[in-house]
Amino acid sequence: MNFEDDILKGKYFPFKDRDRLKATMISLLILLVIILFSLDFYESYGEGYKLMSTLEFGMIILLSALYMLFPYIISLDQIISISLFTVTLFLIVSLGIDDINAELSLFWIATLPISFFYFLGAIKGIRWNVAVFIILIILTLAAQMQWITLLYNSGLMLQISIGYFIIAYWIYLIEKERSINANNLTAALAGQEVLFKEVHHRTKNNMQVMMGLLETQSFKIEDPYYKKMFQAHVERIKAMSLVHENLYKNEMYEKVDMHKYLVELSDNLQKFTPHTIITEIDFIYLDMKTSMSIGLIFNEAVSNAIEHAYSAGNGYIDVSLKCTDKQCVLRIKDYGKGFNVDKTYHTLGMTLIEDLSHSLPNGSMDIKVAEGTELKVYFNAEEERS
What we know:
This protein has helices spanning 3-8, 18-46, 50-69, 76-94, 102-145, 154-218, 224-249, 258-270, 288-308, 348-359; strands spanning 255-257, 276-281, 284-287, 316-324, 327-334, 364-369, 373-380, 384-385. By secondary structure, it is α+β, with helices and mostly antiparallel strands. Strands 2-4-5-7-6 form a 5-stranded mixed β-sheet, covered by helices on one side. A 3-stranded antiparallel β-sheet has the order 1-3-8. Strand 4 (316-324) and strand 5 form a beta hairpin.
C-alpha cells in the first residue's frame, strides 16, 4: 500500500486538516516532477546532453527516494523543505546550462512563490522568496559583469528578477489575507466551541439539580411503588444529563461518543443490581438527538430487564450497539423468564421505548422471546468512527 492510500484513509493526517491537503499536494507535485524529469532525461540523454541528463537523473533518484520514504520515515515538514530546496537549486543551476528547455525553466521559476507561500506559510515563504530573489539579482549582476556565462543575458535576467518579485509580492498579499481570515475563523470557532460547551455544562448542572430535588422528595415517600417511580424518573434524567456531560468533556461538541456514553449508563445501572451487564459498544459518534433517544431506550430496556427478567439469583444482560455503514442496531438481551409479547403493555417504560424507537431516523423495534427476552432497535445514522 502506498502512502497516498494511507493519507486518503486518514492514517497519518487528520481529515479536514490543512496538513492533509499539503501532504496530498506535495505527493502529487513530486510525482509530476518525477514524470517531467523522466521525459526530459530521455530526450537529453538521447541527444547527448551529458550534464543536463546527469542532473535530471540525480533529481529523479532523490525525489523517488523522498516519495517512498514519506510519510513513514520523512515527516511532512522535512519533505516539503527538501523538495522545495532541491527543485529551487535545480532551477537556479539550469539558468547557466544551454542545453535545456528554457521556457519550461521559466515556468517552474514562476511557480516557486506559489509553492513557497502555500507549503511554508507567510513567514517562511517570505524568507525563501527573498533568498531566491537575491540569488536572481546576483546572477543578473554576474551576467552584466560577465563573471559567469548564463543562458540569458543581463537584460533578460533583470526582467526575470523583477517578474519574480512582482509574482512573489502578489502571492504574499493573497496569503496574508488568507491567514488573517483563517485566524479570525479559528478564533470564532474556538469561541463558539466554548459557548456550546458552557451550554451543555449548565444544562447538565440543571439536570443534576432536578435529580437532587426528586431524590430528596423520594426520601419522604414510604410507598415502595411511588418511591420506585421517583427513582425511575431520576434515572431517565441521568441518562439525558450524561449526554450533555459527554458533549462538554469531549473535543466534539456536536457528536456523542456512544461507547463512552453507554458504558457510563451501564456502570450506573450496575450499581443497583446483582445481575451482570455485559456491553459490546462500537466506537462511534452519533448526533445529540439520536444519542439521547438511544440512551433513554437503553436505560428503560436494561432497567426493565433488571426488574422483571429474573425472579431470583444472578443473571446476565447483554447489550450491544453495532453499526455497519449507516445501519445501526441496538440490542438488549436477557436470559430470564421473558414475557407475553402478544399482550399490550401500557407502562411508561414500554411506551417510551416504542415511541423513541420510531422517532429515530428510519427507526423500528423488534421484540423476541426465546430463552429470555431480546429487544432490537434498528435505525439509520450518519456516524463517525473514532
